[in-house]
Amino acid sequence: MHGADNNQPVMNCDRFGRTINYLRLSVTDRCNLRCSYCMPEQGVPLCSHDEILRYEDLLRIARAAVRLGIEKVRVTGGEPLVRKGLIGFLASLNAIPNLAEVVLTTNGLLLASLAGQLRQAGVGRVNISLDSLEFDRYAKITRGGDLAEVLAGIKAAEKAGLQLKLNMVVMRDINDSEIEAFAELSLDRSWSIRFIEYMPTIRAKAWRERVVPGAEILERLQKKYRIVPLATGRMCGPSRPFRIEGAQGSIGIITPMSNHFCGSCNRIRVTSAGLAKSCLLSEQTVDLKPYLAQDDDLLCQALRQVIGNKVDYHQMADDSFGPASFSMSGIGG
Ligand code: SAM
Ligand code: SF4
């Protein structure tokens, strides 16, 4: 489609030869939780309602991204389920030709009432962020969340026929004692249980002590179970997949800190205010809003620039990396 010079990607490849086929699209920066690893207690500055893109604009961005080779869109937040009209938006997203997959990441609090509608809107798979199976600990980590609501959401999602992935951010001395209990959820359910290394985006005090490296998580599981590595799929993302021998479900380990997976990064991100990012940790954004008033070719060109901006790897584990200037809830993880 274009030459390889001046940051112009060839088809959907970036200048390091990585195929970019995955868009994380945030529909809101609002959230009904205040997870301690994601935002400070007082919350984060929010965009004004005027700044948040209308669904039709988010759809235009998604369509333009598909023209550039995006095959999978993950809808995220803040908490995506708090935005009104989400179900209709998801159905329209699903109707985009050549978009192979629409998936959602949620904290699960509102899933009990929405799971059936999500399925009907064409969502096949949902990632639920859940960091503890103990009521008090869950409330503490999320600063007030009710685990019972998430469990009801999981039940409803299963009943609706949604495939489930559970994402646990592992933090030493906070919830790492539950690694084995989480892994055991995969024994007689077809769920994928994924362990994510804690990322110090808010540079909390003594953050290094909190990070439990993926290798340690695996070692701990291997002490208890025979763990079998699985093949990764083209659209799998950064998770290294395993199975406890004989289990119905699987386990995934995601290591943004101890072993960054930038070499196989396949994604770009767009916030609910229309800021496109080529890397979660990059300070650089491209504001897509001005392009929404122009024709689709210019919007595609702006997205090409985002792909062209992708760096080869991030440096979050370095001491020189200060507190991130963005919030995870604003970007959508
Ligand atoms: N509210 C939704 C949820 O919690 O699933 C979607 C947005 S949330 C920002 C997306 C993902 O980012 C969640 O799985 C969350 O656990 C993860 N996340 C947020 N802060 C993180 C951190 N400091 N380290 C690792 N993962 C983090
Ligand atoms: Fe927690 Fe997700 Fe909300 Fe962040 S955006 S506070 S991870 S629920």
Textual characterization of the structure:
This protein has 333 residues and is of the alpha/beta class. It has a single domain (22-330), classed as Alpha-Beta Barrel (TIM Barrel), CATH 3.20.20.70. The protein is built from 11 helices and 12 strands. It has helices at 55-67, 86-94, 111-120, 135-142, 147-159, 179-184, 207-210, 214-224, 289-292, 296-308, 328-331; strands at 22-26, 72-76, 101-106, 125-129, 163-170, 192-197, 227-229, 240-244, 250-254, 267-270, 275-277, 286-287. It has a 12-stranded mixed sheet. A hairpin with an 8-residue loop joins β11 (275-277) and β12. α1 crosses α10. The two termini are 31 Å apart. 43% of the residues are buried. The model is unreliable at 1-10 (pLDDT under 50). The site of S-adenosylmethionine has 21 residues, from β3, β5 and α11.
Give short descriptive properties of this protein.
333 residues; binds S-adenosylmethionine; disordered N terminus; TIM Barrel; 29% helix; alpha/beta; twelve-stranded mixed β-sheet; binds iron/sulfur cluster; single chain
